[in-house]
Amino acid sequence: MLREQQPFPDAAREALADAQLRRNLGHATSTIRTKRARVVDEVADWEELRQAGRDLKRETLARLPELLETLEAQVTARGGTVHWARDANEANAIVTGLVRATGSREVVKVKSMATQEIGLNEALEDAGITALETDLAELIVQLAADRPSHILVPAIHRNRREIRDLFLRTIPDVDPALSDDPRALAATARRHLRERFLRARVAVSGANFGVAETGTLAVVESEGNGRMCLTLPRTLITVMGIEKVVPRFRDLEVFLQLLPRSSTGERMNPYTSLWTGVHAGDGPEAFHLVLLDNGRTAVLADEHGRDALHCIRCSACLNVCPVYERTGGHSYGSVYPGPIGAVLSPQLTGVEDNASLPYASSLCGACYDVCPVKIDIPSMLVHLRTQHVEAQRERRVPTPEAIGMAAAAWTMSDASRWEQAQAATRVGRWLGRREDRDAGRIRSLPGPLAAWTDRRDAPRPPTETFRAWWARERGHDA
So what's the pLDDT on residue 61? Predict the structure, then answer.
């Protein structure tokens, strides 16, 4: 669930050909961007809040082993059970075993990136257990046998008409006159889910935060479906990435201000659920916490890349990214799309397993400007690109890029060769000689150079080089 099935450029090319997809994404991301900007402007100390969030995340990573042990002790002391999972296989085996032990063949799920990351639904299905998504967007994705395309709004690539048609097709006893009004669609989903909540004996959730000091877990959401899952079933199983721990209960004060404004453009989340262990007669009778590594300790070991673990999954970086807005989340191949996915996925899997993702960015820096915990994503992308280039140097057969760079270095290392190369660019003026709207652009280069213009235009070379202009204007060489 973290590895690209095809290189990003190939997947992006297919997405760019889908005009409806680009319209849906453009409308949704621009709406969220506008809401976010408005509510962020209301907070006078927003930059101080961002810095506080960054400082807390840095403290957490610096004390991670200690904080996780404290969290385990506090959860255990309050009647919960803590499990440790090194990778996706271990986590899936733990959850599957826990569900089987209850005798249930069905679980209801709270929206969770961690369970998507490990492919839990598929693992449960292989074990004969049905996982029912209860978040509206996740339900839409599940009913359509689709894949999520956004961290916060997994069905962002679908519009209301498509969702109405989907409900009519897949949900029993839906009024054939169902409109595409959001309220009508939400009411239909709510009726569909109600019976599932009442019959569920096991729920699976993620966690936005885990408080080491008290053993408290937190989930924030907008619909209330998560709260139903967290309170009604007899057994609650939570899968949490180890980086989600925070030192103290009061630290939630910072993140519960940063997260809703950055994610949905709201001043606070409509539902914030906190639970600590188990309590007789109140909520689940059994609580299990699965602490997931799955590559996170490897990321922590990289001094240039560890800041990716600061991410609080708000998706603000996706909503401002010009690349994401045009290609959508499926092009990234990972459950973590957009700018944060382009740095997090390659680090969790190893860069060579997601080699094209660090290049899925214009490096414009918009993601850094909106990140609520100040993750310097552009610098991390450059760092990962460097790792990829260094790995390619070890290949027995050089890549076309390596050959091109070697040729460029050879040319630029000698003044006469460089002047000859500049003179050769005059051929480009002939290629870009069109007088229509494409004037000044080269649409197609010949031979091996076509690999460049297959995906982008090239500017038409000027009538003379800078050196020639200098010599003409000043009467001597530059």
Answer: 97
User: What is the distance between the alpha carbons of residues 224 and 227, in angstroms, rounded to a whole number?
Assistant: 5
Chain mean position to CA 37: 20
DSSP letter at 210? Answer: E
Q: Could you identify the residue written with the tokens 């480009």?
A: 428
pTM of the model: 0.87
The side-by-side arrangement of strands in the sheet containing 271-276 is 245-246, 209-211, 216-221, 271-276
φ and ψ of 272, to 5 deg: -125, 110
Per the DSSP assignment, residues forming a β-bridge with 82 are: 289
User: If DSSP codes are grouped into helix, strand and coil, which group holds residue 225?
Assistant: helix
Considering only CA atoms, give the Rg of the chain: 26
- How far is 4 from 27, CA to CA, in rounded Å? 26
Closest CA to 423 of 463, 471, 460: 463
Tokens read off for 395: 């290949």
pLDDT tens by residue, 237-285: 999 999 999 999 999 999 999 999 999 899 999 999 999 999 999 999 9
Q: What is the distance between the alpha carbons of residues 134 and 211, in angstroms, rounded to a whole number?
A: 25
Nearest to 107 by CA among 97, 167, 117: 97
Measured CA to CA, the distance from residue 193 to residue 311 in angstroms comes to 31
Q: Which residues contact 102 (CB under 8 A, 6 or more apart)?
A: 201, 202, 234, 235
Helix, strand and coil in the chain, % to nearest 5 = 55, 10, 35
Cα–Cα distance between 466 and 446 in angstroms, integer?
A: 25
Q: What's 282's DSSP letter?
A: B
Q: Distance between CA atoms of 335 and 4, rounded to whole angstroms?
A: 10
Q: Quick one: how far is CA 57 from the chain centroid?
A: 18
How far apart (Å, rounded) are the C-alpha atoms in residues 440 and 164? Answer: 46
- Amino acid at residue number 212: A
Nearest-CA neighbor of 375 among 305, 308, 315? Answer: 308
Please identify every stretch of the chain with a pLDDT value under 50, giving residue numbers as ranges.
Answer: none
Cα–Cα–Cα angle for 224, 228, 230, rounded to 5 degrees = 110
Q: In one letter, which amino acid is 210?
A: G
In terms of C-beta distances under 8 Å and separation of at least 24 residues, what long-range contacts does 141-149 make, across chains too?
Answer: 143/167, 143/170, 143/171, 144/170, 147/330, 148/116, 148/329, 148/335, 149/328, 149/329, 149/330, 149/337
Structure tokens belonging to residue 116: 């998507």
> Token pair for residue 327?
């290609």
What H or E segment, with its residue span, contains residue 453?
helix 450-453
Tokens of 366: 């918009």
β-strands 245-246, 209-211: how paired?
parallel
